Amino acid sequence: MLEENNNQSHFHDNNNINSRATNLRDEYHHIFNASNSGNRLSDNINKKFNNKKIQVFHLRISKSKLLRYFNAFLEFWRFIFYCIGVIVQRFYYLAFGWPEKSLSTDIALITGGGNGLGRLLALRLCKMGAKIVIWDINKAGINKTVQMLEELGGYCKGYVVDISKREEVYKAAEDVKRDVGDINLLINNAGVVSGFNLLDTPDHLIERSFNVNVVAHFWTTKAFLPKMIENENGHIVTIASMAGHVGINKLVDYSASKFAAVGFDEALRLELEVLGHNNIKTTCICPFFIQQTGMFDNVWARWVSTLNPNEVADRIIIAIKRNEKLAIIPSFLRGLLILKWATPLACASAFLKCIVPDAAPQSRPQKSILNMATNAAITSRVNVMSTFKDNLSPLTNASSLLIQRSSSLGERVL
């Protein structure tokens, strides 16, 4: 009986254990299911939140795109109205006259002012009352220019400077600031030309063409531009060439350097405008071939006459007084430049060969590149001497303003 009671006790204990295990299992499943439903709820919330974030992000992107499109739209119409205003202003000036600034208080520096076009510009500026500073490599030419300007009652000071050498430019600039004052009219006039076919041109003349015709502009501009900006008054004039817009036979190095000079002026002007230095003006002068300057006196040109240097000097002064950005001389060549890009390049090349059959008739083709230097030296002496012998007739008398320089091998200088 005792044993039977014990068996019943064990049976009840087992039942209790099983029921407790079942309860624990049910509780575990309930918790597990609740946890899974919570995770699913959390996942749903996260998904909805992420979708909301994506929608907000897309909304922001669409707003930024819309803003960009709107700004582009405004910029476009601002550009259109600006162009219309400039065109209307241009017609107004053509009808009623251009406003011209006074140059009487300017201090002008002219590179290559020892003869030719540089001297003619110095004479005109001096008559207007400007102080003149002359840079040149020829001391005799400098002295002659200074003497002529002083006889007119003007102020002129000359310095012997090789503008192709950066150190000389910076040193001379400091001397000018100390002796004369701050330059506010810089005329980069000096230039050289070789006048040979490319393969007949010595390497040092190619380097010289670039150093004088364009690289020197960087040194002179960097020397005087800071003070112009500080004083909020300045004008930088680049004497380039029509050869800076079109290529010419026997002027590969010269034309390439003048292309660079035109680009220098345009890029500098845009940079000054972007920086807000609107009081600093730039002017690029692009004349056709000029007579009696020692550079293109013997050029063979047809259809378009070579230019009188006095007329070119007068036109340059007018362009400076009007703050013109670009002056093409003669002005009708501007239309021909449009035709260059409006017609096939083959047509433009044929036209250029008709206008300028030979830019340097006296430079004869060399038989071989090996004897290039010797032949170039002979040709140089012929070119330089014949140029100055043929130009003893009056220029106003401009030819009397021509001073023979000590040129480099094969080089003719302005």
UniProtKB/TrEMBL annotation:
Taxonomic superkingdom: Eukaryota
Task: Give the GO molecular function terms.
Answer: oxidoreductase activity, acting on the CH-OH group of donors, NAD or NADP as acceptor
Q: Name one GO cellular component term.
A: lipid droplet
Q: Which UniProt keywords apply?
A: Membrane, NAD, Oxidoreductase, Transmembrane, Transmembrane helix
Regions that span the bilayer: 76-95
One Pfam entry name: adh_short
Identify its protein family.
Belongs to the short-chain dehydrogenases/reductases (SDR) family.
Annotated protein name in UniProt: Estradiol 17-beta-dehydrogenase 11
Organism encoding this protein: Glossina fuscipes
